[in-house]
Structures are given as C-alpha cells and as structure tokens.
Design goal:
Elements: E1 2-7, H1 17-22, E2 28-34, H2 46-64, E3 70-74, H3 77-87, E4 91-96, H4 102-114, E5 119-122, H5 137-146, E6 165-166, H6 167-174, H7 189-203, H8 207-210, H9 214-220, H10 225-229, H11 235-245, H12 252-274, H13 296-304, H14 310-322, H15 327-340, H16 345-355, H17 361-370, H18 385-392, H19 397-402, H20 411-415, H21 430-445, H22 448-461
Parallel strand pairs: 1-2, 1-4, 2-3, 4-5
Antiparallel strand pairs: 3-6
Helix pairs in contact: 12-17
Bound molecules: flavin-adenine dinucleotide.
Length: about 475
C-alpha cells in the first residue's frame, strides 16, 4: 500500500496531519499540486505563488532528511486523479482540508468524491468541517487549540520511480515569474518561527496602539498572516507557544489582543466554509441590489493609488510594493471603494486580494463585505480619509516618503487633500459621496424584511463569544 500525501496550503513539517498520518506506514510519496489555473483564480497572484514556493523549498529540504521529497504534479485535481489511477492500484490518499475559492473547491470536491473510499481529509486549523454548530464553536476551537501537536513524520522507505517534476527543477523553471517582487515577505517555517520569537520577545510592545499606524504596524504586528495562509506554521503552534510564554511576559494586554485575533482568523474562515456562495453574494442578499453598476477606470485608479487623496494613495503604493498593510488601512481602502466610489465589492475584492501576499479568502471576503456594509449584522462604518491621515500620520512623513512629490507641502494640506493643481485631481467628492452612501445603506436597513433576513445571517455566522465579538 502506497500512501499518497497531497500538499496544497499546509506547507510545514510539524503539526501537519496529512504528512504525519500519511507517513505512519513509512511507504509514502509527497505530491504538490501546481495548477496554473488556480493561480489565476479569484484574487490569486504571483506574489502569493512566490511566498508559497519559499515554503515548499524549506519543506522539501526537511523531507529530504526523511528520505522523501516533494514531487510536483503540473495540472488540475482531475488530471492528478487520472495520474493516480494510471500509476497506482493499491493506495491511500492523505490531504488536509483547505477553505478556498470556488475554482479550488469544485476540483477538490470532485476529487474527494472520485476517491471516496481511498482518501482521508484532515481538518484545517480550528475549522470545524462537520457537525458545525455556532453555539459550541468556540468551545470546540479551544479544545482543538489545546490538543497535542503532531510530531515529525516517519521516514519513508518508498522507492517508486515517479514521472513527476522534482521541486528543485520546478522552482528554477518558475522563478522568472517573480521579477519585481523583491519586497514581498519571505516564506518558510524558519521565517515564521523567527517572526513569532521576535514578536513575543520584543516587537509586541505597544501592539494594541501601534497596530493602527501604517508605519509602526509594519514592525509591531506579528506579520504571521502569510505564514498562516500557506501553513508554514500552524495557528495551534503559535497559540500554544503564546500560552506557554504568557505567564513570564510583560505586555499581557497586547498579547491577549493578539490571541483573540488567532480566534478571529478561524472564525472568519469558518464563514466561507459554511457558506461558500459568499465568494459571489453578499451575506445579506438584499444588499446585492445596492450597487448595480461598476466603472473599470475608477477601480483602476483606486488600485494604482491615483485617487487624488494622498494618504489613501500612499497606502495603495505601499501595498503594491510590499504585499501587506495593516488592518485599519485595509478597512479604510475598502470603505473608500465601496462607500465613496460606490463600486460593487464583487469587482473590487479580487483586485485588492491580488495585492495581499496573505490572501486568505475566508478572512478577506468576510472583511470586504463588512467594510462594504453588506453583512446585515455589522454596523456600517465609513472611514474618513482626512481623519485617518491626521491620526495615523500626523506630520505626513510616511505619506511623503511614498509620494515624494509632496515633500514641500504642509501636513495639513496633505491630510485634507487641498493641493490644487500640484497633485492628481480627486476622483470623487468625499462629503457628497459619503452622504449618498449613508442614505442608501440606512434606507434598506430600515425594513422589517431586512431585519428578519439579518437575524438569519446572525444565526448562521455571528460569533457567540461575547468578549471576542468586536469585529464579528
Ligand atoms: C478588507 C480587509 C481584507 C483583509 N484580508 C485579509 C486576508 O486576505 N488575509 C488575512 O490574513 N487577513 C486579512 N485581513 C485581516 C487583517 O488585516 C490581517 O490579518 C492582518 O493585517 C495581518 O497582519 P499580521 O499577521 O501582522 O496581524 P496580527 O495583528 O499580528 O494578527 C495575528 C493574526 O490574527 C489574524 N487576524 C488579525 N486580524 C484579523 C481580523 N480582523 N480578522 C481575522 N483574522 C485576523 C491573522 O491571521 C493575523 O495573522 C483583512 C482585513 C480587511 C479589513
């Protein structure tokens, strides 16, 4: 019996169920499914592929120490199924679950159905795949987080000669796609461990306050998000390390704040797992009629950071260059697109996702919907760009760094975008567009029909954990 372990987004050696259980008979092969169409699907991009390649590179080295290696299968889930049927008679497939975009899910569901008696699908992080119940969800999450970590896989004795590409060759072939991505975070388990260590040791000081500032958050946030997305470290590993060190660490309030975000991660991914249609439809379906039209030219200016509002444009330039920006700025960017520009989130969401190295569809899509006022269970919030600019970059140094043409301007003029002909024309009037948005959103929220539907949304997706409900 050959154990076939398939990798997707859980790219680590330790605490990896598919790798661990698949290795127990010591006769396993490891396959990474590289599907070019997946990397073109809703919100996916080359910066994410680059990060996942870093993770694969380190995992490949780790597996070599166990007499194994990563083999790359170039094709879809369907093609991989055919390859397995052609090459193996007696086999067992091991794969970790992954909540992802529709393209992935369809291929994965058919693959599971095709091999239903020969495949084991393991849970992913704190997600609850079956018998899901929102009332007991957080209790179960705690149980998962506190259970034992899985050990290093057993070495393999498998000697099969496979007609697949070795990861080292694949890596060389694909590296030409990554030019211009030098500032993107580096992937791999050792990078993740380093980030966790420096965060707990030092960087977390002042986390609760600094996380809102685009300049300070770069250093004071954990920066673990792409590592969670590509699984170079598990949330359980981070949770347990944090709990172990908490008694002896100062900054307890900062660390509790970080800890509840680990919970939010899974809480948000669970929403997309429970209702995959959220990729295309608003959580509160009545909201899908709000923004019937879109404008490609306006969306392009927004994504390129050419809106005429310096602080917002600086955020977009920073994100384009670095593949990351803090939560507060992500929320402001999205609020501007959905409220001021009145563009449908279904058009803007994938464009923004492509810029995030950490794109996690479950979190991204839920947050995009929250910041667009279409969930029905969160109070709509329209961010003021000038207030954020003043609060988070008072002397406008950060903005000037990204937009050096504004170096000689007084910070106040930058906050209020009062630069006349010296900067790009504003693509929208902030005051009247915000008023229009408020009227539209609150207009539909008044009806009984809306409230009844919102109650159903809450029962399906709302967090029941009072002290963790801040952004749910
Ligand atoms: C419009 C929008 C889109 C977003 N898209 C993504 C995305 O694609 N991927 C993603 O990981 N996060 C997303 N977030 C949430 C948040 O901005 C990032 O998780 C955070 O900035 C990542 O940086 P960090 O790892 O340093 O976070 P830290 O502050 O160090 O937090 C630690 C971890 O907690 C989790 N977390 C933090 N904040 C949230 C939150 N509000 N909701 C859910 N989980 C959270 C993440 O896993 C994060 O890595 C989005 C937020 C908004 C407003």
């Amino acid at each position: 019996m050959t154990d076939i372990i398939i990798l997707n987004r859980n790219l680590r050696l330790l605490d990896n169920a598919a790798l661990y259980y698949g290795s127990l008979r010591s006769n396993f092969i490891v396959i990474y499914l590289y599907d070019v169409d997946y990397w073109k699907a809703n919100g996916k991009s080359s910066r994410q592929l680059k990060f996942s390649n870093d993770c694969l590179e380190e995992l490949d080295e780790d597996l070599k120490k166990l007499n194994s290696k990563i083999n790359v299968f170039n094709g879809s889930f369907y093609d991989l199924g055919k390859w397995i049927e052609t090459n193996y008679n007696y086999f067992s497939i091991h794969i970790n679950h992954c909540t992802d975009v529709n393209y992935f899910r369809e291929g994965f569901d058919n693959f599971k159905e095709n091999f239903k008696n020969k495949i084991t699908v393991y849970d992913d992080f704190g997600l609850q795949l079956n018998n899901f119940d929102r009332d007991t969800w957080s209790k179960n999450w705690n149980h998962i987080m506190n259970s034992d970590l899985l050990d290093v896989p057993k070495p393999s004795n498998n000697k099969d000669k496979l007609n697949l590409i070795r990861f080292s060759d694949f890596k060389n072939e694909i590296s030409c796609e990554f030019s211009g991505l030098n500032n993107i975070q580096e992937g791999g388990t050792s990078k993740a461990k380093e980030l966790l260590e420096t965060f707990l040791d030092q960087r977390c000081k002042g986390y609760r306050i600094k996380m809102s500032s685009p300049s300070q958050s770069e250093e004071s946030c954990s920066r673990l998000s792409p590592h969670f997305t590509y699984g170079s470290i598990s949330i359980r590993q981070v949770y347990q390390q944090l709990n172990k060190m908490l008694p002896e660490l100062n900054n307890k309030k900062d660390l509790y704040s970080f800890k509840k975000r680990l919970y939010w991660h899974c809480h948000f991914v669970q929403k997309l797992h429970t209702e995959p249609e959220l990729e295309f439809y608003s959580m509160h379906r009545m909201c899908d009629d709000l923004r019937p039209e879109y404008d490609d030219e306006i969306i392009e200016k927004w994504i390129e950071g050419e809106t005429g509002f310096p602080f917002l444009d600086a955020c977009m330039k920073f994100l384009n260059e670095n593949g990351w920006i803090n939560f507060r700025m992500r929320a402001m960017i999205m609020s501007f697109a959905s409220y001021n520009l009145w563009q449908p989130w279904q058009k803007t969401s994938p464009r923004l996702a492509e810029l995030f190295t950490d794109y996690e569809p479950g979190i991204h899509i839920s947050q995009v919907q929250m910041q667009s006022g279409v969930t029905g269970i969160n109070l709509p919030r329209i961010y003021s760009i000038s207030k954020q600019s003043m609060d988070q970059d008072p002397d406008a140094e950060w903005t000037k760094n990204l937009l050096p043409q504004l170096n000689s301007f007084d910070p106040k003029l930058i906050h209020n975008a009062e630069l006349n002909d010296s900067y790009i024309p504003q693509i929208v009037d902030l005051k009247s567009s915000a008023k229009f948005a408020r009227d539209q959103i609150w207009g539909i929220r008044k009806s009984i029909e809306f409230k009844n539907e919102a109650r159903k949304v809450y029962l399906k997706h709302g967090s029941r954990r009072k002290r963790y409900t801040k952004t749910s």
